[in-house]
Amino acid sequence: MSASKQIVVQDACVIFDLIDLGLMASFFSLEITVLTTPQVIMEVLDGDQMNITNEFITDGKLTIEGNGSLTDIEKMLGENSGLSFADSSVLELAIRKSGAVLSSDLKLRNATARNRLTVRGILWVVEELYTANLLTATEAIEKLRMYERINDRAPRAEIKALIERLSK
Predict the structure, then answer these.
(1) Mean pLDDT, all residues of the chain
(2) Is 82 left (phi over 0), alpha (psi -120 to 50) or beta?
(3) Domain ranges of the chain
(4) In Å, how far are 59, 86, 108 from 12, measured between CA atoms?
(5) CA–CA gap between residue 6 and residue 32 (Å, rounded)
(6) Which of 43, 67, 102, 166 is buried most deeply by CB count within 10 Å?
(7) Are 112 and 91 contacting, i.e. CB atoms less than 8 angstroms apart?
(8) Can you give the pLDDT at residue 90?
(9) CB 13 within 8 Å of CB 103
């Protein structure tokens, strides 16, 4: 990685998963720049989740980038069937900032790949936390097993493979 911090643009599903897994504070300890859009923040409707999210916004760890062009976001929406307006705003921001997209939403992940951007998910977060010594192998495995329970769309095969690597 270069001297500048890696940029990741996160969507709402990642915010929810990080909160549910109790990983929000650890995640923001990673040496990355985390951005999201006002449209994503508007999807955080639960009061407790919003309070947690606002802590990281206030601390300057989660930056809301609202400078995207409405025309560009609408273009993303039109070109990528099935994306929500918020997802389209994430994609537009990632393209504009040359950042990776952090999402577990299949349609957004596919649209990101089609635009030749890096796409990552919760498994990447857990592995990065482990690599940065912010989670032990035991804690990482526990979070991965919890992820399987709380998110019925979690990638089971990839989780199993990561658990096997962490168990060695």
Answers:
(1) 94
(2) left
(3) 1-168
(4) 19, 9, 11
(5) 5
(6) 102
(7) yes
(8) 97
(9) yes
pTM for this prediction: 0.92
Burial of 18-52, coded b for 16+ CB within 10 Å and e otherwise, reads bbbbebbebbbebebbbbbbebbbebbeeeebeeb
- The Cβ-side half-sphere exposure at 139, using a 13 Å CA radius, reads 15
Tens-place pLDDT, residues 61-108: 999 998 888 999 999 999 998 999 999 999 999 999 999 999 999 999
What CA–CA distance (Å, rounded) separates 69 from 88?
11
Of all helices (H) and strands (E), which one includes residue 74? helix 70-79
Please say whether the structural domain 1-168 has been given the CATH code 3.20.20.70.
Answer: no
Q: How are strands ordered across the β-sheet holding 32-36?
A: 62-64, 32-36, 6-10, 100-102, 119-120
Tokens of 96: 């504009």
User: Cα dihedral sign for 28, 30, 36, 42?
Assistant: negative
Assign 12 a pLDDT band (cuts: 50, 70, 90).
very high
User: In the structure encoding, which two tokens stand for residue 16, read together?
Assistant: 């929810």
Q: What one-letter code names the amino acid at 48?
A: D
Q: Report whether 83 contacts 77 (CB < 8 A).
A: yes
CA 92 to chain centroid, in Å, comes to 15
